[in-house]
# Entry
Amino acid sequence: MTKFHFAFKVKDIESTYKFYHNILKCKVGRQTKDWIDFDFYGHQLSAHITRKIDPLDYCGHVDNIEVPIPHFGCILSSKQFEDAKSNLIAYNVEFIVKPQARYKGSIGEQQTMFVLDYSNNAIEFKSFRNEKEVF
# Structure
């Protein structure tokens, strides 16, 4: 598997650490006072402090749901999806798109959910019924 790297903006290291490490259980990599890396399900996230967090635009229309753009996320196994959902619920993280099945009975059937991290970054988690139908 090729690893993906994504650098994104956050308001501070403390709340970012809490969200990605404590709630999502991502391992912490290198860090300084200005940025922190996480192992996000095998991919490298680099969270960088900024004073300017851009607003979200709910311009994405997918299966009759308005989704925030930009967003990032991860395709997980069913167990990883359920574990992430349980952790998010346990920490009272609000879902901007509640966990649900999308494209039920069709090609690409998946479980999906969206949350915001503590810096207002939109994150989608997906789990496909059939991994061969990702694309």
